[in-house]
From TrEMBL:
It is a multi-pass membrane protein. It comes from Zopfia rhizophila CBS 207.26. The chain crosses the membrane at residues 37-58, 101-122, 134-153, 184-206. Coiled coil: none annotated. The lineage of its organism: Eukaryota, Fungi, Dikarya, Ascomycota, Pezizomycotina. Its main location: membrane. This is Rhodopsin domain-containing protein. It comes from the Eukaryota.
């Protein structure tokens, strides 16, 4: 039986169910999960901000040269600040949907910044390192295309679009299993793209005329950065 809007409003204003015996319901105080999100986000953003400021200071005051990777870093930082705020609001699933879109944008910018940094270090032009020069560009195009496709499919999977976050809407339709398949594909894309970004500079590093210990150290640092 489909409820009228008035009936839905009344039901939403009431508790979904009675609390267990011996447990007192408390719907006014903030949950431990929200507190944890605030603490973890503040710590992680604080550490990331310190490293970002050190990088910018080095590029501007010491190296005295900035490039496109620096602008990418600034864009990423602004998006990363927004994500924790949306996590606190995701009790309303509409905010969760917005968070998913911003998450995809942030991940794409991070991966592009890493690949652009590879080009600056290993392949400033095609003749120096053709494999890196072409491979990094192919990865950038593939990453942007795949993430954009998944994001678009997830956001047009239901008509009207509000059905994505509002289960009370009975009109319209959703593509069967579109969001679930999109989620699986996104997880796979994250893993594969991270591995490709990690392995791409391996050839360039191991061709360097430096001791084996330093090669292993550089590879380890890139692996940590990719993770």
């Amino acid at each position: 039986m489909q409820l009228l809007p008035e009936g839905i409003t009344v039901l939403l204003e009431r508790p979904a169910m009675l609390p267990p015996k011996g447990v007192k319901s408390d719907v006014t105080n903030r949950s431990n999960t929200q507190t944890s999100i605030v603490i973890y986000s503040a710590v992680c953003l604080g550490i990331a901000s310190i490293f970002m400021l050190v990088r910018l200071y080095t590029k501007i005051r010491i190296v005295r040269k900035v490039d496109i990777t620096d602008s990418q870093t600034l864009h990423q930082s602004t998006l990363c600040i927004r994500l924790p705020s949306l996590l606190l609001l995701k009790a309303n699933s509409q905010w969760l949907n917005i968070e998913q879109i911003l998450f995809a944008c942030t991940i794409v910018l991070v991966k592009i910044a890493i690949l652009l940094q590879y080009l600056v270090i290993f392949a400033p032009n095609k003749t120096v390192n053709p494999f890196m020069y072409i491979g990094a560009r192919i990865l950038i195009v593939a990453i942007v295309t795949c993430y954009a496709t998944i994001t678009i499919v997830n956001n047009v999977s239901c008509s009207p679009r509000e059905r994505i976050w509002n289960p009370l809407i009975r009109t319209g339709h959703c593509m069967p299993n579109a969001r679930k398949l999109g989620s699986y594909f996104l997880q796979g894309l994250n893993i594969v793209s991270d591995l490709m970004i990690l392995l791409l500079p391996a050839t360039s590093i191991w061709r360097l005329r430096i001791p084996l210990k330093k090669k292993i150290g550089i590879t380890f640092q890139l692996a940590v950065g990719t993770l």
